[in-house]
Amino acid sequence: MISTPTHPESVFTYGAPQLKFGSGSSDEIGYDLSQYGVRRVLVVTDAGVAATGIPQRVAEQMGQFGIEARVFDGVHVEPTDESLIAAIEEARTSGPWDAFVAVGGGSSIDTAKAINLLTTNPGELMDYINVPVGKGQAPSNPLQPLVAVPTTTGTGSESTTICVMDVLSLKVKTGISHARLRPTLAVIDPDLTLTQPPGVTAASGMDILCHALESYTARWYTTYEHKKPEQRVPYCGSNPISDMWSEKALTLLAGSFRRAVRHGDDVQARADMATAATFAGMGFGNAGVHIPHANAYPIAGQVKEFHPKDYPADESMVPHGMSVALTAPEAFRFTFEASPERHVRAAQLLAPNAGVPTEPAEFLPTVLADLMRDIDIPNGIAAVGFGEGDIPDLVEGTMKQQRLLATSPREVTEDDLAGIFRRSMALW
Ligand SMILES: NC(=O)c1ccc[n+]([C@@H]2O[C@H](COP(=O)([O-])OP(=O)(O)OC[C@H]3O[C@@H](n4cnc5c(N)ncnc54)[C@H](O)[C@@H]3O)[C@@H](O)[C@H]2O)c1
Ligand SMILES: [Zn+2]
Question: What's the CA angle centered on 299, arms 16 and 389, to 5 degrees?
Fold first, then answer.
């Protein structure tokens, strides 16, 4: 169990970008940028999103406001240190840029965050990556305006302070986390998500769901030791404000997730998923996430041979949302005892017509596994290529995610993690 603090924390923080939400909102980006007085804008996207024509449409509106816009479509799906360095190089060579617009999923938004950081600040990528992988340096200069335009319903990266990447040489996923990385403006136009293929809708939707569930069950902010102002981190534990966003996100998902996967052209389901992603992002971006996300990093980083449907076929990958979901049922079975009422409430919000089972600890894991089966998420980590022999490496990878494990509502040991991975080999 978590020990009682000597001087309990009494303060929590809340940060969010400016938001513009709704059908047609992406047609106003040219005007919005003109309000910042910018002249040269780089639109950052990946080849898959570029094929929908959306980034070009966004770039074209800028001409009427006297803004020159160029589209860079070289984002790597699930960015790596190498892909980010290449994107930064390209932006440095073709710059200077007064502003950035990220059009795409978390991969494009995170790449734009890294480009923004390293075209406005000295040094190299590694200087800013979280310790112990990098030097964890804070930016010394302000960044340029960044408008984030999500085309997936998932990461919430448009409202967070994080940039996630795979460090290839170390086979580890990590990131950069700093308040200045938060986009200046998030433009969420649900119409842009209609072309998301079912496999991407399912995986990125599980990311929304886990953001909401993990922040809702995260360690309560007053259970930490009191911090000094300079010690405050973006992730401060669950609190009354993040709870509100997380609960609403769960209700929206309950009504729309299966429909959005099965009927991609269902405009209402897409709008509800986009709202849920935004709400969950505003919740977890402040409260934090815990075990499922910590486990996801080694699952994605140590992938062997797996090619998910609807993702670029040229390399093995376990997409972020899928890698988070695969151990979620077991993680919530483990954290149940820390706050039974929250776990039951979350399951009720997700499955409002289901009764509480005789064993309440089974409620949330069962509701999750039923949903995952319905939307075609693989049945556990064995289904994406892992075996019992991989568990020690997975546990070691998770233990490196101390920033995330610090938000777990229950102390978690290496043995606990090994058990969670073992029981997550097959989920149903
Ligand atoms: N910064 C954060 O706060 C944060 C949080 C969670 C995850 N992430 C990161 O975000 C990345 C995952 O992002 P994601 O799940 O949003 O997906 P993504 O950006 O990786 O895109 C997934 C695939 O969907 C395609 N696609 C996206 N939108 C489309 C559309 N509208 N129509 C057709 N195809 C479309 C892309 O081309 C790509 O092939 C991972 O790297 C993950 O680690 C970041
Ligand atoms: Zn996530």
Answer: 155
Residue 174's pLDDT band, with cuts at 50, 70 and 90, is: confident
Nearest residue to 213 (alpha-carbon basis) of 108, 125, 328, 104? 328
Residue 345 burial (CB count, 10 A): 17
Q: Helices 291-301 and 198-217 sit at what angle, rounded to 10 degrees?
A: 140
The confidence score (pLDDT) of residue 415 equals: 98
pLDDT at 358 over 80: yes
Q: Does residue 170 or residue 153 have the better pLDDT?
A: 153
Kindly state the average pLDDT of the residues 329-342: 98
- Read off the pLDDT band of 16 (50, 70, 90): confident
Name the residue with the closest Cα to ligand 1, atom 17. Answer: 105
Block residue for tokens 């995986």: 203
Average pLDDT of the residues of the chain: 96
How confident is the model over 225-234, as a mean pLDDT? 89
Residues with CB under 6 A from ligand 1: 46, 48-49, 52, 77-79, 104-108, 110, 151-152, 154-157, 160, 162-164, 192-193, 195-196, 200, 204, 207, 311-312, 320-321
How far is residue 219 from each of residues 237, 287, 324, measured CA to CA in Å? Answer: 5, 9, 19
Q: E strand or H helix at 162, and its extent?
A: strand 162-167
293 closest CA partner among 391, 381, 215: 215
Instruction: Give the distance (Å) from ligand 1 centre to CA of residue 105.
Output: 3
The span from the CA of 114 to the CA of 127, in Å, is: 12
* Strand, coil or helix: 138: coil
Q: Which two tokens mark 314? A: 């040229």
Which range, of 7-11, 171-175, 287-291, 408-412, averages the lowest pLDDT?
171-175
Backbone angles phi, psi at 34, to 5 degrees: -60, -25
Do the Cβ atoms of 222 and 3 come closer than 8 Å? no
Half-sphere exposure in the Cβ direction for 409 (13 Å, CA): 23
Q: How far is the CA of 364 from the centre of ligand 2 (A)?
A: 19
Chain mean position to CA 133: 20
Mutate to test the pocket of ligand 1, among 26, 44, 45, 49 (most ligand atoms within 8 A of CB): 49
Check residues 298 and 403 and name the one with the higher pLDDT: 298
Average pLDDT over residues 162-191: 93
